[in-house]
Prior knowledge:
The complex is a heterodimer of chains A (197) and B (152). By secondary structure, chain A is an alpha+beta fold. Chain A has 5 helices and 10 strands, in the order H-E-E-E-E-H-E-H-E-H-E-E-E-E-H. Chain B is built from 1 helix and 10 strands. In chain B, strands 1, 2, 3, 4, 5, 6, 7, 8, 9 and 10 form a 10-stranded mixed beta sheet that branches.
Amino acid sequence: MKFLSPSKIVLILFSLSLLIASCDQPEVIKDLSDQSFQLLDQDSTQVTFPDDFQDKVMVLGFIYTHCPDVCPAITANMKNVSEQLENSENVQFVGITFDPRRDTPSVLDKYMKQFNLDEEIFTFVTGDTSTVHSMLNALNITAEISSKKTTDKGDIVYFMRHTNRISLMDKEERLRLEYSGSYSKPEYIVEGINKLR
Amino acid sequence: MNLYRYLFLFLIVSLVYSCTSKKDRQADPVQTNRIAVQDAWARSAQRGMMSGAYLTIINGTDQADTLMGISTKAAGKVEIHLSVEKNGISEMRPTGNLPIEANSRLKLEPGGYHIMLMKLQRNLSAGDSIAVSLLLSNKDSLSVRIPIKEHK
């Protein structure tokens, strides 16, 4: 009876471990490395998405500030994720508004302060309407006005129908994982971040 | 002499029992003939922005009631909305009057019915609270103090 040589055993075990590791990696949903969106952050500083965050795992949360229920839950979930990470090195949290018309940089700045978010790792972005809508479309996000009315004072008030999502992009600017923004447990999202690191 | 001792003990036990019983009845208002509010809280937010508030209305009476509106000086406008989600798409819908059946609870909670506090007149900071009036059909109004909490 012939036995495998030690070197062959090592080669087989090494190949098996590589195979197992690759099976554990999430599939690429979309590659955005060839796309570029010019946005503004909460300080009105220009941001190029996703290039400015290359070499970082991106945690994307989609909100609008006139949403008092689901969107604060999404933002709070992002904060919970950031607090559960053992270290936030090479991780960037990006809040993206569905509503660039009302969510100007100063409004997003106020919104971030409500949550006491760490601006070292969090940024919230807005931009002109067509750019933001193109970017949301590229990220598989739906957002549209669901109801609209004019008040007695002539103000237009509207609410939006939107995807409830937190998404993860890898260091190569590829969309890899998608979670329910308000319902997913932070530990599952942390697990996803660690897989992409 | 023993008779008086037993009578004294009986009186003490009866007094303790009656006091305990009264507290138990008050702890579960569904069994009393009144309406109460529990688990009220609101999200912290900045002046001019929007916040959500939540609470449970307990109708401990034998009559159905209706939540017809909510008012507070802390917000320029207050509405009650319902969050719904289908196939991962979320939206809010304004609601009309909300019925509260007899001997039941109406919950306003995250992901469901909630109070929208719009055009906040001041900052709502964690640890603070706001005074709110609930307008009910069977009662003039019910005043409630809602504490402000950090986002969860």
